[in-house]
Protein 1
Amino acid sequence: MVSSPHEAMHRIFQEYPGLFSRVSEVLGVNIPPPTSATVLPTDLTENSPVERRVDTLLRIDTQYDGPFLLAIEAQGKKDPRKTASWPYYVSYLHNRYGALPVLLLVVCQDHATAQWAARPITIGLRQWQTLTLNPLVAGPHNMPVIKNVAEARKDLALATLAAITHADDPDVGAILKTLSAALRDAPETIADPIVELTAQGLGTRPAAQQWRNLVAVDTSFYKSFMSEEIRDEGRTEGRTEGRAEGLLLILEARGIALTDELRQKITTCTDPRLLNQWLQHAATATTTEEVFAEGH
């Protein structure tokens, strides 16, 4: 499984294209709900050596205002190069798709990056700006903090994006607990991608382990890659603990005394290969040195 917050922050809109209408509402922009949405190619490269790709590109159709293009960028940190890339994306898409309006949404996970991304990008002279780009920005500064299970159930996609953007929130444990509880009654087809996207979005943060612990409490309600991984880890951990207990019993039966330090070395070992080696040594060893010898 790819563990990448960058992927999750934009891929969630591919999985749930209608999510943007709720996000735009949160951001204070009145965009009608979509009647349909189409994922478009993200390659914006022209016949030149420079390759340019937007993270996610959607064509959103609405009932009253007609279609528009939504370019989504997941931004993990400030990047001065984007002041050149983003205006290019918008201009290229405007040129390629004719009269379709173009919106740029930037999704962030920290306040500093969100504040930076929200600044208008201007091209031209100080006295006269030829082009001004105003990105929409979704991040921890404006995404809702959802701690009510009923509220999360009403819009699981928005609750997922909110959890991802609040990955560094001191109270992220409560946010993730709410989302996990909201998924318990959801069908596997709905729960599976949300579990995966949330894990992806949390990346290597401490909150990622909190999420794993939450879904590991009851993995019966979904059968995703992550649930299989958790079950495998549980089986491996159980086997490792069994080997450690067996080794302690053998040493006790053979009258080989252990210091507190050596006992802790055995009980905290998570390497099955090493535990097996010690077990084999313990069958014939007469001293602790022989048990833990490398070659033996």
Note: The chain has 13 helices and seven strands.
Protein 2
Amino acid sequence: MLDRIRILAQVVESGSFSRAARALSLAPSSVTRTIDSLEAQLGVPLFKRSTRQLVLTEQGDYFLARSVRLLEEADQLVQSLQPLHEAPSGPLRVSVFESFGAACLSPLLPEFLARYPGIRLEIGFDNHLVDLDADNVDVAIRIGRPTDSGLHARTLLTNRSLLVASPAYLARHGVPGTPEEIAGHNCLIRGQGRQRQHWYFRQGAQQRVRVPVQGNLTSIGGTPLLEAARAGCGLLLLSSWMVQSSLDEGSLLPVLPLWRASPYEHSDDQILVVFRGGRFLKPQSRAFIDFLVERIPPLQTREPGWPE
């Protein structure tokens, strides 16, 4: 059945029986007999024979759309059984949100490609939430747990957020002494900007403060916010892996370091690598995921004064 489905998929992709036969190195009569046998097995016509163009019937379109996933799973199963000593090869599509991709992933890609020269990597920096099936993505890097129960995930690092500002901004506007004072400052906000934003602060076991924030710059991605903060435009609450180098060089300074700050009320979301496949994960996906876990260790905030 799977071999017949492969020929059907090639016929549709090629647009004719003869071109499909050339692509598969088969005789045209063999392709025709295979499609006839598949229609007989299914008990429905797959193509509209009365038209000059090659057009799937409604049943044929339905069958092919659902069969493609079976072919992909079969291929992944076969690939997952490769001997461990064989280097993985083949295409790999990865989606990662822009700021993490630029700051943490891009510097590692040459090493990954050198380690696995047979893998053909296609990577997209996307701040929208991709659908792994619809967008044909093998691996995605996201903030927060996936809502799709069919997805698997491995943790890369905890997304600790830090409140920072440039020395110039603090010199002009003063250093906030309490979380409540932040409401009077210009805040650089990560998000959609369509609803009221809050930042959340906690200290010790009991102290919890929710602060409404507003400002003149909002962005889904963190890169524009980081550049604006470094230029003295406002207070910034952003992931430690984005601001740590600026803290180290002194272009940003910690604000309220004795408080744990977060854009989320209950927790700092983790950064996860998300994938389908489970036990039968294709080898190039497994190699990429293992590489990320190996090369992206948990980040530690090194600025004195930050709470552990």
Note: The radius of gyration is 26 Å.
Protein 3
Amino acid sequence: MFRTLPPLATIRVFEAAARHGNFTRAAAELGMTQASVSYQIKILEERVGSPLFVRRPRDVALTGVGEGLARASGEALDRLATAFAEAKGQTAGVLSLSVFQTFASVWLVERIGSFQVEHPGLAVRLDTSDAVVDLAHADVDIAIRAGQGDWAGLTCHRLVPGRFTPMMSPTLAARLDPEAGPAGLLHLPLVSPDYRWWALWFAAAGVHLPAGTGGIGSDLGTQDLEARVALAGQGVAMLNPIFFAAELAAGRLVQPFDLVCADSHDYWLCYRTARRTAPKIQAFRDWILREIAAGPKT
């Protein structure tokens, strides 16, 4: 099939200019002059028959026509880059994952060995930073993010719903007044009491949360750290019961009330849609979705 297309070099220039919103930065990335970038864009606009950018004093902005062309160009170049890299064997050996610390610590690290047994030719490189990586530019194959799964350009699979309920050690649970109901928690030390989950859960339980509620005032930031405080009997932590099902089953943690609340920030497996056919991405996706399906659904 004959395709009428501009030269690939012109498409690369346009995609870089659209991504940077600036001809000078695009030129620096491509090792060209700013004048050469402007010339290539002009040729492309003449070929399309419509302006692709609105020129401004310090930058440029895509027109409506330019936005559609930029999206298609970026996806096409991503697919080409992936195909060539895989053909050369450059992407077969290492799977790079960016995973939120909580998910990595309380779920992934206990199971990743089974993935590596299934795929001995893949070395897993794991980054547990809570920073949200830009999969379009970072050297990362797959990210596990918390949110609503609506990120542009990404294919996302929901892994774990956002759920939360108070948990504590059996020793601390013994101090809970059975007659007080959920309000009895206010007489125990709360871990990260200013975190929004506490206010949401108490409101759902019909308990007024007074200002300056006592507790461990610092924000520990991640559920895995907060769970350690709870396991040590030092406070009541607000945790996702799916993550700590084993501790609950073993009796190391106690969930004193049946009330489990929902949060709009679920955990998602994400990768660039343009790379959805990459074998290593498909392998990890299939493995983790199978593992999730076999786990608890609290």
Note: The longest strand covers residues 154-167.
